[in-house]
Amino acid sequence: xxxxxxxxxxxxxxxxxxxxxxxxxxxxxxxxxxxxxxxxxxxxxxxxxxxxxxxxxxxxxxxxxxxxxxxxxxxxxxxxxxxxxxxxxxxxxxxxxxxxxxxxxxxxxxxxxxxxxxxxxxxxxxxxxxxxxxxxxxxxxxxxxxxxxxxxxxxxxxxxxxxxxxxxxxxxxxxxxxxxxxxxxxxxxxxxxxxxxxxxxxxxxxxxxxxxxxxxxxxxxxxxxxxxxxxxxxxxxxxxxxxxxxxxxxxxxxxxxxxxxxxxxxxxxxxxxxxxxxxxxxxxxxxxxxxxxxxxxxxxxxxxxxxxxxxxxxxxxxx
Length: 319
Description:
The protein is an alpha/beta fold and 319 residues long. It has helices at 10-15, 20-31, 36-43, 47-59, 83-97, 100-118, 121-127, 131-139, 143-148, 167-172, 186-195, 234-244, 279-288; strands spanning 34-35, 64-68, 71-75, 157-161, 178-183, 202-206, 221-225, 253-259, 291-298, 310-317.
């Protein structure tokens, strides 16, 4: 193997070893190529602390970092060191390896390696700090919320009020008996119909949200996603949604997704009649519609989202 080409001064070389913990890490990484999680388990310190010291040792040229998927493995390979670093390591290695803590580390290292060979938990020990990224790389970032839709009852009918191009209807249709996709805009309904051409259980209804023309007590759940701010009278939409609800199959829920109250007046140019809704305003709207047990939760803000924050609020038919 080629030696390190980076030339460190003797003070830099010795300075990178000034922390006793770093000597322990070098002893471990010479004995075995290890991931951050495994090293942290051996030395019984937080992964963030271990990661910080491994970074110093890697930048100083003591350790080799090898990617493995989205994780990384660290090792000390003497042949990769510069001659002066090999000399320093030869001088300090024996003393570092004979420390009482090093002996304890060696015992825990054997246990970690045994787990790696025999137990799938070892994989998570090695990549625990990066597991979310591993999971996204393997499966994408949408499967969790989509899979949780399986909690919906198979016999439910859902009204998608203000369905637009069919985003909500597309998500829930595979899990329920029927979806009523309601919108006052014919072009929007045409786009939704194209999007949901393969979904036989979606019925499209062209009607204003305040007066859908649907029979009362015909749906188990009503969803109004990013539509309420477009109507002049949101209270009328809430009352109509409540009229459509039935609760005899465990439903009777209205779910609203919309923007939190904001002051960005430029959104009025996009046809917004209301600049979001506060928790207090939604509480009044639910109560005036005869819906109880209501709640209001801010949704996490996406890093690249340019619009105002969003909330999800829901209310239930009164018993």
